UniProtKB/TrEMBL annotation:
PROSITE patterns: RHODANESE_3 (PS50206). Keywords: Pyruvate, Transferase. Residues 2-50 form the Rhodanese domain. Coiled coil: none annotated. InterPro entries: Rhodanese-like_dom, Rhodanese-like_dom_sf. The keyword Transferase applies. GO terms for molecular function: transferase activity. This is Thiosulfate/3-mercaptopyruvate sulfurtransferase. It comes from the Bacteria. The keyword Membrane does not apply. SUPFAM superfamilies: Rhodanese/Cell cycle control phosphatase. The lineage of its organism: Bacteria, Bacillati, Actinomycetota, Actinomycetes, Geodermatophilales.
């Protein structure tokens, strides 16, 4: 990772990602938590979905 690079953390529900943000902070890396995480992302029906082969 290059200095100044934005870091975002997410997981299935946001709980595990909160621990990742804390661990990164302990390592001196500032990270943003997306609280909706993957569950919120996939629940948005306006997002395109690939189907088929």
């Amino acid at each position: 990772m290059r200095p100044g690079t934005a870091v975002g953390v997410y997981c299935g529900s946001g709980v595990t990602a909160a621990h990742e943000v804390a661990a990164l902070a302990g390592a001196g890396i500032e990270a943003a938590l997306w609280p909706g995480s993957w569950s919120e992302w996939t629940a948005d029906r306006s997002r395109p979905v690939a189907t088929g082969s």
